[in-house]
Design a protein that fits this description.
The complex is a heterodimer.
Chain A: E1 6-15, E2 22-32, E3 37-41, H1 48-55, E4 63-68, E5 71-72, H2 78-88, E6 89-92, H3 104-114, H4 119-132, H5 148-160, E7 166-170, H6 178-195, E8 198-202, H7 206-209, E9 214-219, E10 222-228
Helix pairs in contact in A: 3-4, 3-5, 4-5, 5-6
Chain B: H1 2-15, H2 17-54, E1 59-64, E2 67-68, E3 71-72, H3 81-90, E4 94-109, E5 112-121, H4 124-128, E6 133-136, H5 141-145, E7 151-153, H6 155-162, E8 171-174, E9 177-185, E10 200-204, H7 205-213, E11 220-225, H8 231-245, E12 256-260, H9 261-304, H10 306-314, H11 319-356, H12 364-390, H13 394-399
Parallel strand pairs in B: 5-10, 7-9
Antiparallel strand pairs in B: 1-11, 1-12, 2-3, 4-5, 4-8, 4-11, 6-9, 7-10, 8-9
Helix pairs in contact in B: 1-11, 2-9, 2-11, 2-12, 3-8, 9-11, 9-12, 11-12
The chains are: A alpha/beta, B alpha+beta.
């Protein structure tokens, strides 16, 4: 039996000490398989962002094990976590987080630069990724010259240009209007269905969460529900 | 990867050209000051050395007392006619031996008068000093003996007293001594100390002793060795002869000093080089201040770009890659400042050197040093901000507004 893509074993995250201790995650057990589309919901302070940070290798659990493709990451150094992000994960943020005054194609190339890939190959892959998110012809535009929806597409292209195992999306539509949100969610859904990229998305909007096949709800650091949603639900926006 | 890093650094610098320029202004000024100081100083040293060498390297000067770094005494006994005669008779390889007494006197010719330096010496003086006559002749034997007055005047004195007229055969009064002009010296120009060597009157020693100095002794001696004779040998011979004549016990220090021109040259160029070094050091302090300016702006830049750093870290930049990026940026900035400073400094020195009438001596060593030093400043003062950037927590950095 192959190991699940992502597994939490009794993962806890504690901030602060003594009286001021905050238990952001309390002994969470969770597995996510290759190819899943998972939404994580919960009120603020529920631990959903902490869980996302741990999955994304940006943070380490206080106790318990985060196992990625069968490899426990406890005791990973900063550099090892960086390499995990570099090779396995793609990030999409609420605020797009593109480099300002930098063209779309250069933004998309950025993760490849840190891999030491040569210029021509980088350019070729970045152009392919931009085409995949429907921004062909906009590669020369700088961040400021693109609309919010276009910027988020560039961010998605940047996340998938490295062929990651997991696409991590943190409130990907939080800064977008409804129409653009639908477009972005359709793009993410198609990347999941057609390209087989595992998608894990944090959101506080029910209709956005509905795009995912599986929905996790966090409250006060506990995983309170884990349910498979009807496929049809995703289309009733 | 290096090319990418350099490109990124250049983009960050050029994004705010004005600020980048102001950032490195400290380094520009520091480097320019060092380069200008040292270049001007080198020019001055070269000029002094050149002028001293024109005085002849086989010339020796004998003075009473001990002269040297930290000690200068004139207490010691002066020289006598017997010393001159003994040197002439007993030291081999000499071309000329001339006693020299110096004084200042008012010189009058017709309606013009002028205060000038008056040297009492013998005909050998011009030979020892390699000094040509432009007009007239040297002192005759009778004149040297002091029984007959005669004067040789320098070009400046001639111009001031006689204008365009030929002074040879005319009479001047030097401090109430009537004295016919027998010769005019060729132009020699400024000495290494900066005074006008042509502003002078030369008269026979005996006349000078009697009428100007009021003495029978001699204050210094100029010697010139024959070509091919070692001045060190002559110097040693003169020293042992004078020790004997002045009855200095074995083990006691000399109460006189024999210098050759190269020793005097070394002392003088040593002084100008020391001054150059000091000025350079003062200027180097401003380089340090410039480095602090770079650190300051790099820290501001790291804070401003916290979010960007967070993005880079999140998508897979290693700590070292971020560190390198900021370090390269700081070094590029400071090198940019260094090169601008070098060019500015050289231009400044070029202008000043023309004004001071000293040669333009650009030292490749100091230019190289200034370049490396400015790069090092970027490295040192850029390291702390760069490390701060590299060690940012990506979660916090991404949340930074």
């Amino acid at each position: 039996m192959t190991a699940p893509l992502i597994a939490f074993r009794q993962v806890s995250k504690v901030y602060g000490r003594g009286e001021a201790t905050i238990r952001a995650l309390d002994k969470i057990d969770l597995t996510i398989a290759q190819g899943e589309f998972v939404s994580i919901m919960g009120p603020s302070g529920s631990g959903k962002s902490t869980a996302m940070n741990i999955i994304g290798g940006l943070d380490l659990p206080s106790s318990g094990d985060y196992i990625f493709q069968g490899i426990p990451t406890s005791g990973f150094s900063r550099a090892q976590l960086t390499l995990l992000r570099r090779h396995m994960l793609g990030f999409v943020f609420q605020g797009f987080n593109l480099l300002a005054r930098t063209s779309a194609v250069e933004n998309v190339e950025l993760p490849l630069v840190y891999r030491g890939m040569d210029h021509a190959e980088r350019r070729r892959r970045a152009m392919a990724a931009l085409e995949q998110v429907g921004l062909r012809g906009r590669e020369g535009h700088t961040t400021q010259e693109l609309s919010g929806g276009q910027q988020q597409r560039v961010a998605i292209a940047r996340a998938i240009v490295t062929d990651p195992a997991v696409l991590l999306a943190d409130e990907p539509t939080g800064n977008l209007d409804t129409k653009t949100s639908v477009e972005i969610m359709d793009l993410i859904t198609s990347l999941n269905r057609e390209n087989g990229i595992t998608v894990i998305m944090v959101t506080h909007e029910e209709d956005i969460a509905a795009y995912a096949r599986r929905l996790l709800r966090f409250v006060d650091g506990h995983l309170v529900s884990d349910e498979i949603q009807a496929r049809e639900a995703a289309h009733v926006v | 990867m290096w090319f990418e890093t350099a490109k990124l650094a250049w983009r960050a610098i050029s994004r705010n050209m004005l600020r980048s320029f102001l950032t490195v202004l400290g380094v520009v000024i520091g480097v320019a000051a060092v380069i200008a100081m040292v270049t001007i100083g080198n020019g001055t040293t070269a000029k002094v050395r050149d002028e001293l060498s024109r005085l002849g390297t086989n010339t020796l000067f004998v003075r009473p007392g001990q002269w040297g770094p930290g000690r200068a005494s004139t207490e010691a006994k002066r020289f006598t006619d017997g010393d001159i005669a003994a040197i002439r008779d007993q030291v081999g390889g000499l071309r000329a031996v001339a006693p020299v007494n110096r004084g200042t006197a008012t010189v009058i010719a017709g309606g013009a008068n002028r205060s000038t330096s008056v040297i009492g010496t013998t005909a050998d003086y011009l030979i020892a000093q390699d000094w040509e006559l432009a007009l007239g002749r040297d002192f005759s034997v009778t004149e040297d003996r002091g029984s007959q007055a005669a004067c040789i005047i320098g070009e400046t004195t001639r111009r001031e007293l006689f204008g365009a007229a030929d002074p040879v055969g005319q009479s001047i009064r030097v401090s109430n001594v009537a004295c016919p002009v027998v010769g005019v010296l060729a132009v020699k120009g400024q000495s290494g100390m900066g005074d006008d060597q042509d502003d002078t009157v030369i008269m026979p020693l005996k006349l000078h002793q009697r009428r100007i100095g009021g003495t029978t002794t001699i204050s210094s001696i100029v010697l010139s060795a024959q070509d091919g004779v070692s001045t060190a040998k002559v110097q040693a011979d003169v020293e042992s002869l004078l020790r004997e004549r002045r009855r200095i016990a074995i083990g006691r220090d000399d109460d006189f000093t024999v210098n050759d021109m190269s020793q005097i040259a070394a002392a003088m160029t040593g002084t100008t080089m020391l001054l150059t070094g000091l000025l350079g050091a003062v200027a180097a302090v401003s380089l340090l201040v410039g480095g602090i300016g770079i650190m300051n702006i790099m820290l501001v830049s790291v804070t401003e770009r916290t979010r960007e750093i967070g993005i880079r870290l999140a998508i897979g930049a290693l700590e070292n890659q971020v560190l390198t990026q900021f370090l390269v940026e700081a070094v590029m900035l400071s090198i940019f400042g260094g090169v601008t400073g070098i060019v500015t400094g050289l231009a400044l020195a070029y202008g000043v050197v023309g004004f001071l009438e000293v040669p333009f001596v650009a030292s490749p060593t100091i230019i190289m040093l200034a370049f490396l030093f400015s790069a090092a400043i970027g490295m040192i003062f850029g390291y702390f901000p760069a490390r701060r950037a590299a060690q940012l927590n990506p979660i916090d950095a991404l949340r930074h507004e």
